[in-house]
UniProtKB/TrEMBL annotation:
GO molecular function annotation: hydrolase activity
Keywords: Hydrolase
InterPro entries: HDIG_dom
Gene3D superfamilies on file: Hypothetical protein af1432
Protein name as it appears in the record: Phosphohydrolase
Domain of life from the UniProt record: Bacteria
Amino acid sequence: MRKIVKELWPELNWIEDEVLREKTTKVWEIALERSVLSDEDLQRIPFTLLCGPDFKVSFMDHKQCVVHIAKESGEKMNSFFKDELPVDMDVLLSGAILCDVGKLLEYILDEDDNAVQGTYGKYIRHPFSGVSLAEECGIPPEVCHIIATHAGEGNMVKRSTEAYIVHHADFMTFLPFKERLKV
C-alpha cells in the first residue's frame, strides 16, 4: 500500500519533517485499505458530486492542484510577509494532502461504478472522518485543524494561516466549476 500512496502522492516528498511525512503517508494507507475505492478509482472519479453526473475533473487532479496552489501560496506569503505572518510549510503541505482523505470513506461506487455518497458519508462528512483517520495516525493538531476547517464546516471557527490557505486553494478550484458564469 505504501508504494501506491507514494505513486499517488509524489508531493509527500515536499514535507521536510520525516516523522510528519511518514504519518501523512500512513493516513492515506489506512484510508485506501478501508475504502471501497482503489487508487485507479481516484484517478477517474470526479472530485465532487456537486457539479453533475458529467463532471470530468478527477479526484486526484483536483487534490494535486490544491496541494500545488497551497505550496506556492505559502512560499509567496513567507517571501513577502516573512516573520509577520509565517507559514509552516510542512503543516501546510500535510494538511493540503490530507484535507480530502475522508472522502475515501464518504464515497462508495454505485452499480454503474460511479462515485456516490454512501450512508456513512451522509452522516459523517469527510472533514470529520479525515480528522479521525489523521488522529489515529498521530497527526498533530495543527494539521488536523486544516482537515477540519477546509470545508464549509470551518466557517464556524477561527482558522490558522495554513488552514486559510488550504481552504482557499480548495474553494478556488471548486467554486468556478460549480458557480461559474456561463455566457
